[in-house]
Specification:
Layout: E1 3-7, H1 12-23, E2 31-36, H2 40-50, E3 54-55, E4 68-71, H3 79-88, E5 93-95, H4 103-116, E6 120-121, H5 130-139, E7 145-153, H6 163-177, E8 184-188, E9 194-199, E10 205-211, E11 219-224, E12 227-232, H7 241-253, H8 260-279, E13 283-284
Helix pairs in contact: 1-2, 3-4, 4-8, 6-8
Length: 285
Amino acid sequence: MPNIGIIGAENSHTVAIAKTINIDRLVSGFSVTHVWGETPDDAKDAQERGLIPNIVQDPEDLIGEVDAAIVDHRHPKYHLPAVRPLLEAKIPLFVDKPFCYRLDEGKEFLARARELDVPVCSFSVLPKQASFAQLQEDVRELGRIISVVSTGPCDIDSEYGGVFFYGIHQVDMVVRLLDQDITHVQLNRGRQNHTATLYSASGAISTMNLIGEGRVGFHVSVIGENGRTDRVIGYDENTYLTGVLDFCHMFSTGKTDETDSSMLTPVAVLEALEKSQESGEKCEV
């Protein structure tokens, strides 16, 4: 049975993944056996709630103990440094969203993964939901896309990377709908709620509503030359299951549907949005 180690325990994803595999037994043949936490309390909480047998004192302690690893920090700047020793040990990796904090770092990491022939994938679970898959089916009937409008929660001043922290969910969905075609962005600051304008080489102009107050879910509208479609992006019964199945399939086979573009374009967009937030200007992706 392949053993999985998880680096990071400060957020809900670690326990959710461990419960899906260890408690609900929804992924045959896998077990989450080790966890490293940002604090001893974080690690102990994840261990108890996810029935994870072992706590390690350092992420590198996973080497020789696990067959695959997940890194799951709130701030993306910690993701790739935490798993670089595991990459060099040729351990397959799922990097939770966002993949990284800087585009150049991500490019170098994926290039090294190719050199070592180590499978790596990263994604938000929002595009893995059945509601988003149905939206993608509906969009095929619209012809050329003129605009995408998304709405969701986002604190652009979050201590966990600002717009990166929750903006990744909308960005990952929008870039997939636009086939990775985003050339420039501009973040427009309000008081607690903000918008981001995204420009495409195709001529499409899209908007993300970054809502910082109230209880708001995710919603996407797509306008095409043949009409429009609108959908609330609801969660599956188990929000994480499809994503867990995807990365476990990669752990088993070495194959993933994710590409350098699908993992790095969201980072490039988020980094440009961060620059636009600082400058107040339109920025190139």
